[in-house]
Amino acid sequence: MTGDAAPASIPHWIGGKPYLGEQSAGDLARSGHVVNPATGGLSAEVPFADPTVVDLAVAGAADAWGSWRHASIAERTRVLFRFRELLHGARDELAAVITAEHGKTRADALGEIARGIDVVEFACGVGDLLRGGFSENASSGVDTYSLRQPLGVVVGITPFNFPAMVPLWMLPLALACGNAFVLKPSEKDPSAALFLAGLLADAGLPDGVFSVVHGDKETVDALLQHELVKAVSFVGSTPVARYVYERGTSLGKRVQALGGAKNHMVVLPDADLEAAADAAVSAGFGSAGERCMAVSVVVAVEPVGDELVARIAERIGTINVGPGDDPASDMGPLVTKAHRDRVASYVAGAAADGARVVVDGRAHARVEAGEGFYLGPTLLDGVRPKMACYTDEIFGPVLSVVRAASYDEAIELVSSSPYGNGAAIFTNDGAAARRFQHEVEAGMVGVNVPIPVPVAYYPFGGWKASLFGDLHAYGRDGVAFYTRGKVVTSRWPDPAGRAGPGRPQLGFR
After folding, report:
1. If you ran DSSP here, which 8-state letter would residue 474 be given?
2. Tell me, what's the pLDDT at 2?
3. Which end of the chain is more exposed for a tag (fewer CB within 10 A), N or C?
4. 167-190: burial string, b at 16+ Cβ within 10 Å, e else
């Protein structure tokens, strides 16, 4: 942007096309700023939908659902196959959109798109996923069978850290099952949602079946309260997840709300320390640590602590921090200045609490240059469970090392966390690994895999304060979430007339 030119305004997507309504770029009643994290420069304004705009989107989705629900499975699948091909072909362009607004590197952006495509491919098999059961002659002349039918208008509320992948966890299965979908993306990086909307339109999805509304809490509340919204899927922080779950379910809606995390990686003395150090660095600092499945705590079971910390610190020195669109960058900036400053405050707090700052990202050259929202990879040692850097979800490039005297102490530490998204163990002992996967209180477990995000045909979801609701994301849980069951019991007239007029059949035989 140059001079006094007004910033571009990012529209909603309603009725199969961009929508700004009466608002103009210079006269937005409620709006947010979209900023390039690598430079700090303002890129665009994003209008926040008020209840009137929300009602327009939801009512339009309900109208479109009236036809879409009756579309054949074959027709829905053809749209998804075309969408998959368009998404794959446009992945470089979409990655650039993500990098410009989120800040993550091109490789990270392409990685999230690839994982999203996995779910689209899974949804293309919806014909098999929606098969019901059939019992012939359950009673004399009576057949019983089950169906799964769409809910209606469903909503997705998604976070800033994966502006393409998380929507793609939701919308392919929701649409494949015959629902209309309204997406409320993060206001920090909303353009990826519009990009997906355009691809769906090009794939032949009928107007109104997919909509995008931007906004804040007022917008979310309007979606939660709308009588035509039947289900809400949410990914974000635990306090907001709890709010969305409690508010939505109190209004009779189906809700799955994925919350925060504090993912632990346990390293046993027999582990391959080279592999463990590599894994800790990639899982802790990839995407600048802004992942709900990032490893934020390494539990070093003694006597490996000193050697493991040294190897991690050595690898941190090779990480190139820079703009996400620079091919030489291994790690980009954080999403906003406020978030960068919040993450940095945890480093200061850890030092004040007695932790040892082995590598201080606040002293990184990019930070000292004062351009963009950078914080270098940070390594803390001697962290104790009472410290804020341990108890809180930092959501940034800060890796804490906690020492444990034994496996038992390590498993107790992991399972005592109020979060239960993911946990990993690094070991060459099969018995220890089997015991860990059985005992650990987490929804996703990695054995020598630091970020155990399941493939698309297994569900994604945590335990405890990391998930509110019974059903996890995608996989068969996703199909169950976006449909409801119906059981039919049928009897047809006997052509031989054995149950004709005047011959009622009482009960089952």
Report:
1. S
2. 43
3. C
4. bbbbbbbbbbbbbbbbbbbbbbbb
Burial of 310 (0-12, 13-18, 19+ CB in 10 A): middle
Using alpha carbons only, how large is the chain's radius of gyration in Å? 25
pLDDT of residue 368: 87
Q: Is 292 an annotated catalytic residue?
A: yes
How does DSSP assign 115-175, residue by residue?
HHHHHHHHHTTHHHHT---EEEEEETTEEEEEEEEE-SEEEEE--SS-TTHHHHHHHHHHH
351-362, pLDDT tens digit by residue?
999 999 999 999
Q: Is the pLDDT of residue 460 over 50?
A: yes
Q: CA 176, CA 171: separation in Å to the nearest integer?
A: 8
Neighbour count for residue 385 (Cβ, 10 Å) = 11
Burial 77-95 (b: 16+ CB within 10 A, else e): bebbebbbebbeebbeebb
Instruction: Identify residue 296 by its one-letter amino acid code.
Output: S
* Residue 8, phi-psi category: left (phi > 0), alpha (psi -120 to 50), beta (remainder): beta
More confident residue, 264 or 496: 264
For 381, the enclosing helix (H) or strand (E) is: strand 378-381
- CA 40 to each of CA 34, 249, 324, 327, 333: distance values in angstroms, whole numbers, following the listed order: 10, 39, 13, 20, 10
Domains belonging to the chain, first-starting first, are 8-259+466-486 (3.40.605.10), 263-447 (3.40.309.10)
State the distance between the two ends of the chain, measured CA to CA, in whole angstroms: 78
